[in-house]
Amino acid sequence: MREIYAEVITIGDEILYGQITDTNTQWLGAELSLLGIKTIRKSSVGDRYGEIETILQEASQRAQLVILTGGLGPTNDDITKKVLSDFLGKPLVLNNDALTDVSYFFASRGRELSDVNKQQAYIPLDARVLRNQYGTAPGMWYEHQQTVFISLPGVPYEMKGIMKDHGLPALKKHFKTPFIQHQIIRTAGVGESVLAEQITDWEAALPAFISLAYLPSYGGVKLRLTGINEDQTLLQTSIKQQTEQLLPLLGDKYFYATEDINLEVHIGNLLKAAGKTLSLAESCSGGYAQHLITSVPGSSVYFKGGIVSYSNDIKEQELGVSKSLLEQKGAVNLEVAEAMAKGILHKYKTSYSIAITGIAGPEGGSAEKPVGFVCMAFASDSGELFSKTFQFGKERDTNIKVSAAVAMNLLRLGIEGKLS
Amino acid sequence: MREIYAEVITIGDEILYGQITDTNTQWLGAELSLLGIKTIRKSSVGDRYGEIETILQEASQRAQLVILTGGLGPTNDDITKKVLSDFLGKPLVLNNDALTDVSYFFASRGRELSDVNKQQAYIPLDARVLRNQYGTAPGMWYEHQQTVFISLPGVPYEMKGIMKDHGLPALKKHFKTPFIQHQIIRTAGVGESVLAEQITDWEAALPAFISLAYLPSYGGVKLRLTGINEDQTLLQTSIKQQTEQLLPLLGDKYFYATEDINLEVHIGNLLKAAGKTLSLAESCSGGYAQHLITSVPGSSVYFKGGIVSYSNDIKEQELGVSKSLLEQKGAVNLEVAEAMAKGILHKYKTSYSIAITGIAGPEGGSAEKPVGFVCMAFASDSGELFSKTFQFGKERDTNIKVSAAVAMNLLRLGIEGKLS
């Protein structure tokens, strides 16, 4: 297979000076990689004619695909189009599709199309417009001496929208890239290194055209199999076989989905399917676990609510944790976690509950219970009660987020009947 | 003043292919900018000799400062040092300070120093080591034909640590950059454009050596005055004067702090100073407002707790919202928000409370109350009750975060006695 090289260029002083975060180039690099196109350089330059012209010349010598983002706005700062027009030797002409799109964009918002905004519908002669449903600046595709130039607006959701709708399919067609297939395997409750050890023989025996990526986050490690081959049938069969071989190695405690869904969505699916409900009682996680649960659209069907019991008063009055227990053993221990889980389950009359109590830090730690020490409990209306202690790190924000993520996995295991 | 140009180069395939997020270049661009050094290009290249060599040659033609990050690990992939050594014509030699640091790093973790790790203490002859307290790869400073080359490890906290400890002070000294002073002014409850209009005359009259940046986020717009001058006294006096002129223009509803603290921290300071307490009742924000409050270290002093009342049952049973009100007018209106705020205030016996109820989306909207429609209320134990409706956007995650951020400002105004 011939390798296709790409360069990605972002234009704008605000990126150079660190005023905004560039998320475009990471996304583009990953998407191109999924098409089998290799990004060999990324560059950011300022909003100046000479800088853009130079990088265009350099990049077109090295790559068969040059993607530019930014500098397409209606203001004078935004000169990408002017430089590109001169570089390609093609004057800017009014494009009717682009004019339709920008007119529609303003009309749908009850705003008038100004002359300045109409300028946005001009693109270099012979360029193909990549239509933009998300904003006012059209994308553009131009083939010039063996190199494809794509120019996109810098606003991330416009850029991504245009690429998904038009740019990526056109690239796939133009470069006749081989077939690509991905298979996601979601795991939780296991670290990258343990997982890697567990599947090392399987990984070593993968065919050369299938690669494995470990994508870790607070919520667990996502495995991604990527196959690239010119024989689509072989590709599909192989990915399927490899996945079937992999799943038993993972075991059903770690593995939870072969679609790319996070634990909160998976939990929601389980609860909806079974017609069950949920409540939460949080202390150190401070509402973050409930935020994860309610970040899922439609979660009001199964999530009735919960309590953040930051003070001992609230643990006692609202969750029925015994005063003597709090006085004798403090707020962070398995008994308190269990009492909180039972308290919220009964009070909110739900099928399941989770409770989290711990020391987020930076203050409040002791030799016996250092910062990062967290107790959790799972309870169900059929009488199950499971609790466990964890030792996380020293950093407050991380402890909050890790506690919530680990609670999601405990909840998942509880619902799936896999706690022990 | 002579302008100093910088280029920042990141090395590593994982950045090109979008496998990791590059946070280094944004941080470096911002820090250099604060020193008065202008970043003119940022580039990412792969872990290949030729690519690194080419970009080094190019960058050294254009800039007086070239910063490289990444490619300093102990593995064979990491070849930055080799390329740099050849490019500078200086063989790699063992540096004793670097050896001390890497030895200490391993010893403090009870691990043995391998030969591979000892390699990390080699730097080009005549280069100055920028010592690394945070990991095993030393930073490096080399002056070559009018250009300063700095090479740093790619791990963000190591890179930032080395630059703060050694790199930035050395740059300040080497380039004799002028004095720089910043003044942060935090605002909330006002958009960038309204703010800009309100202070347009003041902004236009700023002396040439003081610039203004608008840094918007969900929580409000942060203003940053940056002054650059060779006369430190003039600089300090001018920044002080400009700030004094600015504050009255902002008005005391929008302005809340001249230190760089977010609303949650500011609220915590107010509550601690006054010995007051807080509770929250959330519906559509799903725990995120409580997460913001509890993200502040020490928040357990003033935050007693709160309820996420996702179902109407919980609003009724736990917060005392009347059943007939919920049945007749639904869960999203000012009366429900007020009842929730009063309910949690009395139940949790706090000085203040905030309640949030709304339609986060994507489902649940109507013509009268579309997605993004949110009602909030503030209550105090001295009998104050204030409520307000808001119309946010269509996107669930944004609605959750914006609701929580706006609630923080409502709470701030309530505590400061500025609601009306």
Helix run count of chain A: 16
CATH top-level class of the largest domain in chain A = Alpha Beta
Largest interface: A-B, 69 and 70 residues
Radius of gyration of chain A: 27 Å
Query: Helical amount among residues of chain A, as a percent range?
Result: 40-55%
What topology, given as strand order, has the largest sheet of chain A?
A: 2-1-3-8-7-6
Low-confidence stretches of chain A: none
Distance between the termini of chain A: 50 Å
Number of strands of chain A: 17
Query: What is the domain total for the residues of chain A?
Result: 3
**Main β sheet profile of chain A:** 6 strands, mixed
Output the CATH homologous superfamily of the largest domain in chain A.
MoaB/Mog-like domain
Q: State the oligomer.
A: homodimer
Using the alpha-carbon principal axes, give the shape of chain A: elongated
Concise account of the structure shown:
Two copies of one chain form a homodimer. With 420 residues, chain A is of the alpha/beta class.
What labels would you give this structure?
homodimer, Alpha-Beta Plaits, five-stranded mixed beta sheet, 16 helices, Maf protein, 3 domains
Structure, described:
2 copies of one chain form a homodimer. In chain A, 41% of the residues lie in helices and 25% in strands. Chain A is α/β, with parallel strands linked by helices. Chain A folds into 3 domains: 171 residues, MoaB/Mog-like domain (Molybdenum Cofactor Biosythetic Enzyme, Chain A, 3-Layer(aba) Sandwich), CATH 3.40.980.10; 79 residues, Alpha-Beta Plaits; 153 residues, Alpha-Beta Complex (Maf protein), CATH 3.90.950. In chain A, the strands form 4 sheets. A 6-stranded mixed sheet of chain A has the order 2-1-3-8-7-6, with helices on both faces. The longest helix of chain A has 20 residues. In chain A, 46% of the residues are buried. The mean pLDDT of chain A is 93. The interface between A and B is large, with 69 and 70 residues. Strand 14 of chain A pairs antiparallel with strand 14 of chain B.
